[in-house]
Hints:
Layout: H1 2-33, H2 39-43, H3 46-54, E1 72-75, H4 84-90, H5 130-143, E2 150-155, H6 162-173, E3 179-185, E4 188-189, E5 192-193, H7 194-197, H8 203-209, E6 213-218, H9 222-234, E7 241-246, H10 254-257, H11 269-279
Parallel strand pairs: 1-2, 2-3, 3-7, 6-7
Antiparallel strand pairs: 4-5
Helix pairs in contact: 1-3, 1-11, 3-9, 5-6
Amino acid sequence: MNSEKDSTQNKVIEVLKERSAWVKRETLRVHRCAPETRLASSLSDIEIFVALYYGKILRYDPTDTGWEHRDRLIVSKGHGGVSLYPILADLGFFSKEELKRAGCEGSFLGGIPDTFVPGFETVNGSLGHGLGVGCGLCLALKRKKLDSKVFVLMGDGELYEGSVWEAIMFAGHHKLDNLIVVIDKNQRSILGYCRDIIDLDPLEPKFESFRWGAASVDGHDVEGVYNALSMLKRQTENRPQVLVANTMKGKGVPQLEEDPLCHIRSLTKEEVDRILEVIS
């Protein structure tokens, strides 16, 4: 029985690794079409999205995006949500052909996702609002006596916003045990390295002081991310949970990994083509 379970687990991990590589290639291709997309931010969270969707941690129905019993994913760092486009297309939320039109007139796939993209729950404007919205959703789900979970993906630079900490205190006080936050801790914001702007390390004890459960993981180890998120979704502690995913901005693209200001850097079509030749 254990060998059968291990075999199933191994197949899941193989799929997650294969899909992670595919999503990276497709994210680069979207950036080639739409250079206004924030590529570096969209490369650091790929394994998180892959684990949530292909690992079936999220409960969703691509044919009914308003399904009441779905889990909610709030992509609070909307600029990094472009790597979710290929996943949603692959899973049937919209046609894969739309990926080729990203950034073009008439396409709903823009530089920053919006609610008219099937599968996106919220408007992703100014940073710092996603967690507050997530808290409201959690309260509403509890009052409706629904067992759905709310996942919120945030960036570490986003944690500089005061509204974030108001929401953290609120969630802890109200014991929102249907809330799971994932921090894409890629160590850089629009202005450079986070450690040089406001160093918030260590993050985990800060959340714990506000009555949260906290864990950390290598955010580019898709197996580790999958296992951590699976455990957090099953947890029965009467409090919200946070997973700190240690990542690298621009992961897999050397010129982005080495640039402290890669947040706002776009690659030329020729640069993207050269990278695709190496990783394909």
